[in-house]
Write a structure and sequence with these properties.
Elements: H1 4-12, E1 24-27, E2 38-41, E3 44-47, H2 50-58, H3 65-79, H4 84-98, H5 108-111, H6 114-122, H7 128-131, H8 139-143, H9 147-155
Parallel strand pairs: 1-3
Antiparallel strand pairs: 2-3
Length: 156
């Protein structure tokens, strides 16, 4: 699916976060850049190759830390008024606020994003998804901190 218009179609046809029971992996090398393994895109997990998409789709959330990480983003969207628009707006806001920290750590704006901090913290906990069925709110504690404070946590 290296066609950017197919992803735009996924966005137009997106379900509200609460209505998504299982996130499906799809391949798209156009939107997924750099060293990132995957990204959450309106309820889908976007990966580099079809083989990776097939591997993720064959596994349950309990078996795959990557799938669990992306599912946490789904639950975070649920906690932001069950809205992808609110989730992505906040995600971009926190990313931009942390950009100055990139001079202290490579990709700091990404790693210091409260949504990413929660997802990385809990992606290896097999029961975290079940605990957060009504929305993952751990990101809110990180969001109250200034990016510089989050950088101290990330370095420790």
């Amino acid at each position: 699916m290296n066609n950017p218009f197919k992803l735009l179609w996924l966005m137009v046809c997106a379900k509200r976060p609460r209505r998504i029971k299982e996130m499906k992996a799809v391949r798209d090398g156009f939107w997924l850049r750099g060293n990132y393994a995957a990204l959450t895109f309106f309820g889908y997990i976007v990966v580099h190759s079809q083989q990776e998409a097939d591997r993720i789709n064959a596994r349950t959330t309990d078996e795959s830390s990557l799938k669990r990480h992306e599912t946490i983003h789904l639950l975070q969207a649920l906690s932001t008024h069950n809205s992808w628009l609110c989730f992505y707006t906040l995600y971009i806001w926190y990313y931009l606020r942390a950009l100055p920290q990139n001079r202290h750590r490579r990709n700091a704006a990404y790693y210091l994003n409260p949504f990413e901090m929660e997802a990385y913290e809990h992606m290896y906990e097999r029961d975290y998804i079940e605990k957060c069925r009504n929305g993952a709110n751990g990101w809110r504690a990180y969001a109250k901190m200034k990016p510089r404070e989050r950088l101290k946590i990330a370095k420790s």
